Amino acid sequence: MHKKILLSTITCLSLLTNTYAAQLEEIKVTTATKTEKSIDGVSASIIVISKEDIEKTGASTLDTVLKKIPSINAQFGNFPHPSAKSKASISLRGVGANGTLILIDGKRLSAETESPYEMTRISASMIERIEIVKGSMSTLYGSDAIGGVINIITKKIDHNTTSIDMKYGANKNNEARNKNINFNTMGKNESIKYKVYGSINDTSPFTVSKSYSQQATDPTSGAANNAHALDNIAGKQAVTYRDESTVKTIGTRLEKDLSDDLKIGMDLNYFIENTEGQYMGNAKTTSGGLALIKNTPVNSKDKNRRIDASFDLDYIINDDLSIDTKVYRSYYKKRNETDPINFSGPTNKKFSANVTIDTLDSNLKYALNDSNFITSGIEYRKEKRESGAINPNPASSEFITKTIEYKSLFVQDEIEFSDTLNATIGARYDNISNAENKITFQAGIIKNLNDNTNLRVNYAQGYRSPDIAELYVVSPLFKDGKRFGSDVIFGPKTTAYDLKPEQSETFEVSLSNRFNSFTSELTLFNNKIKDKISLVSYGSGAAKYYTSENLSQVDIKGTELALGYDFSDNFDIGFNLTYLKTENESNSKELTYTPDISASLNSNYKITQNLATNLMLRYIGEQYTDTLNTTKADSYNLVDLGASYKINKHVQVYGGIDNIFDEQIDEDLGTNIGTYFYTGLKATF
């Protein structure tokens, strides 16, 4: 009944509404084709979130922005560490966290597998826009883009300006306090452009009290040790669902025009992150005899560092031919220490790591004639991961090194058949050191049915090679068991599994319309994934473990609806709806963390020239949290309200309330922090 009422309400509202980021003026995008192109001429599904849209949310970090975007969902629980309760990864169209590629200015970042931290590391104030391409993008970006690409495009150096943004927020109980300060200055001097930025994001913890009962086991066999003094000790512990953390970022970009045709640039970014939280985990003790104490409170600290350096070049060879090249390194240093709280025991440093990504990415663009624009490119990428988490000995924190190399070629043709019909076709070849070589294809057409209506049809192939965690991780605690990579043989896991790359085919058709102040878009899509990599469980009790295996065939069908209306220059309203139907065809079960329905209603109203308000209503439907479909998280509704006031042309104050009605969500989805209040001040000079 609840769902029927909601759908009836949605149907009524959809007669009036507008897309979250819709603008009636022409929007240029680059991620979908690696060329600057009107969004109306792109065959893939794409959402553009502008800096104005971001400012309306009052967001400090990227996670606050993305959680309000339709068809994007957070996935908890896959990260192989007790702190997974406070870390989420992003999934597009139900494909999964590992199938969503996150880029900053087109560049990959070194970090944890599944990128569970990244959403809170990226300051919203540095973002010019976010381009989200849904559906496989492997023909342009290779592995990891099987579900789509999120490209965070930072602010460009186009004029002299300096801005400072300060924000403070907390929930109604004064928990999860967030203090955020951002600084950005940019300018140009003759042929040199510069940008310098920095941010500090400081957050206090949010915890939930949980009961526990410890279990003492033999650390080798896993057998119960009921005689141990620490066995069967019960109590309560405040479990962290939002880490205590401090993230400091500083960076710069320099650009120089060597001539009218040749430009070079350099980026340097450095961040420091310190986090701490208390969780339920496992810990060893020698007091009273050697034992592994399961389901005991542990304290986990992270000291993480990352440095990103890049050099880029853009050269216009002639009127028809140009080349752009990026060379960059991203180095990430993670140091984790996990200690028992109830007793003395050795510090677990197993989940520390060094991660290095070295990349050469070069694209040649050629206007073959008036009807064909050819883009070809090469990419070389080397990913090196050093970590104790992939050491086959669970008791050892000594680093083991694994390296994967990717060598790729691609070609794309943007074809204009007529003023009303154009197409994009592309192909890519990938040579991968730890998997079979792959060839992927993509083809799409856009037909202008009339001045206001476009028909878009797209077909794309994709692939994703297994990551290092899926192959080699050794985690003594994961959910209610252990986690081992597919190649690992240890304890109850007695055989290795030949983990194959995922392969996908995406079909979609979309009809969009613009008529005066009304916009609409309806998209139908089907994503078929062969050999989808998924976590499966074996055994029970002390012998239970999770490992990565291939599902023979997964089918994801969906519908996306975006409608909208601008009532005036001061008032617009927007609505989005996503419906997903997922199935693991080998057992007819739905995929985890894929809500059947997600919807949002967004309204912007400028009360006066200086006072503006934003109202957002979100509905997230039911979703399974386990692969056997025995546990289902309830649906929930969230209501957010924000406002901003321009004191003068340089200074603006803003504030808002997220989750006004204090809606609680299932703990498997990360437990929100309740009603959250924030206020801030932004000055631009």
From TrEMBL:
<protein>
    <submittedName>
        <fullName>TonB-dependent receptor</fullName>
    </submittedName>
</protein>
<feature type="domain" description="TonB-dependent receptor-like beta-barrel">
    <location>
        <begin position="272"/>
        <end position="660"/>
    </location>
</feature>
<dbReference type="InterPro" id="IPR039426">
    <property type="entry name" value="TonB-dep_rcpt-like"/>
</dbReference>
<keyword id="KW-0732">Signal</keyword>
<keyword id="KW-0675">Receptor</keyword>
<dbReference type="Pfam" id="PF07715">
    <property type="entry name" value="Plug"/>
</dbReference>
<keyword id="KW-0472">Membrane</keyword>
<keyword id="KW-1134">Transmembrane beta strand</keyword>
<dbReference type="GO" id="GO:0044718">
    <property type="term" value="P:siderophore transmembrane transport"/>
</dbReference>
<dbReference type="InterPro" id="IPR012910">
    <property type="entry name" value="Plug_dom"/>
</dbReference>
<keyword id="KW-0798">TonB box</keyword>
<comment type="similarity">
    <text>Belongs to the TonB-dependent receptor family.</text>
</comment>
<dbReference type="InterPro" id="IPR036942">
    <property type="entry name" value="Beta-barrel_TonB_sf"/>
</dbReference>
<feature type="signal peptide">
    <location>
        <begin position="1"/>
        <end position="21"/>
    </location>
</feature>
<feature type="domain" description="TonB-dependent receptor plug">
    <location>
        <begin position="42"/>
        <end position="149"/>
    </location>
</feature>
<keyword id="KW-0998">Cell outer membrane</keyword>
<dbReference type="GO" id="GO:0015344">
    <property type="term" value="F:siderophore uptake transmembrane transporter activity"/>
</dbReference>
<keyword id="KW-0812">Transmembrane</keyword>
<dbReference type="InterPro" id="IPR000531">
    <property type="entry name" value="Beta-barrel_TonB"/>
</dbReference>
<keyword id="KW-0813">Transport</keyword>
<dbReference type="InterPro" id="IPR037066">
    <property type="entry name" value="Plug_dom_sf"/>
</dbReference>
<dbReference type="GO" id="GO:0009279">
    <property type="term" value="C:cell outer membrane"/>
</dbReference>
<dbReference type="Pfam" id="PF00593">
    <property type="entry name" value="TonB_dep_Rec_b-barrel"/>
</dbReference>
